[in-house]
Request: fold
Amino acid sequence: MLEGTVAWPEEFADRYRRDGWWEDIGLFEILARAARRNPDKTALVSRDRRASYAELHRDASLLAVRLRALGIEARDRVVVQLPNVPEFVTVYFALAKIGAIPVMALRAHRQAELCHFFAASGATAYVIADRVGSFDYRSMACELQARAPALRHVIVVGRPLAGQRVQPFEGLVDLGGAEAGLSEFLEQRSALQVVAVADEVRVVGEVVLEQVQQDVQDAFFHVPRPAPSGAFNRCQTPMRV
Reply:
């Protein structure tokens, strides 16, 4: 566990595991399990683009291999500033596979916020879109490279500027030359371990979330628990996740 992380109270964690709400698996294992069970099922839709679970798993795996080859390791910080595009999902799962820690930046953040993120986190990589609307993130990345000494890699979803020292995203998920190390890499357990929701939950998701939020309040803020509403007795429809 990272230094400074506030752990869940043991009694809550034990109950969530006992009741099947949490599983001790990594984020990437969730994707891998979905790809095994439903490889052809659609995982992502973006306008006319569709990707199955098998395709998402393949692309995230390839990207993880290539990021490792660049020198990005477990617990390295990576600033991710992408809009709502499929590549965001691929990047997130690839970082989870490695165990690198994404530092999420909003698309509206500019040099002032990003300089603080890099200074505070020591991030070694930065993932951006080429442009969103009228704003060019590539030009901002050039300025940040000069001001963030730890920043070694800029990865661009789209077209890099002419002569810019960056890694094009499409080249990192190109299958060519990656087969040799991919199978061995996929057999490794994800370095970033999280507690995930079980495959089948016997209550609707918002009710589970409401219970977890209340337990957080009880544990850390000592907010009195309201009287039971009986919602758990009414919600018995399984939810697949």
